[in-house]
Amino acid sequence: MLQPLVSEQVDRSVAVATTPATRLILAFAAVHAARAAQIANLMLDDIDLGNRR
Fold first, then answer.
1. What string of pLDDT tens digits covers the 53 residues of the chain?
2. What span, in angstroms and rounded, lies between the C-alpha atoms of 45 and 2?
3. Cα(2)–Cα(44) distance, rounded to whole angstroms?
4. Please, which residues have CB within 8 angstroms of residue 31's CB and are 6 or more apart in sequence?
5. What is the total count of domains within the chain?
6. Is residue 2 in some structural domain?
7. Rounded to an integer, what distance in angstroms lies between the CA atom of residue 10 and that of residue 49?
8. Angstrom distance (rounded) from CA 7 to CA 49
9. Domain membership of residue 40 as a residue range
10. Does the residue 31 lie in any domain?
11. 53, part of any domain
């Protein structure tokens, strides 16, 4: 089961998020409890932009 990031992990990530891509990865990780391998495997078709999912 996926677990959300703890606040210390988010804080450390925000401190180094200097590019839009890094901030996007951080958002996926923090909001959706997605891990690096899951984010790396995402394809644009996996994101439901019309329903904001």
1. 667 678 888 778 878 888 888 887 787 777 777 777 887 888 878 777 677 65
2. 22
3. 21
4. none
5. 1
6. no
7. 24
8. 27
9. 7-46
10. yes
11. no
Looking at residue 53, its pLDDT comes to 53
Measured between alpha carbons, how far is 25 from 28 in angstroms, rounded to an integer?
Answer: 5
Q: What is the secondary structure of 1-53 as a DSSP string? A: ---PPPHHHHHHHHHH--SHHHHHHHHHHHHH---HHHHHT--GGGS-TTTT-
Q: Which two tokens stand for residue 47?
A: 């994101």
**Nearest residue to 29 via CA among 49, 45, 50, 16:** 16
State the pLDDT at residue 2. Answer: 63
| 51 domain residue, yes or no | no
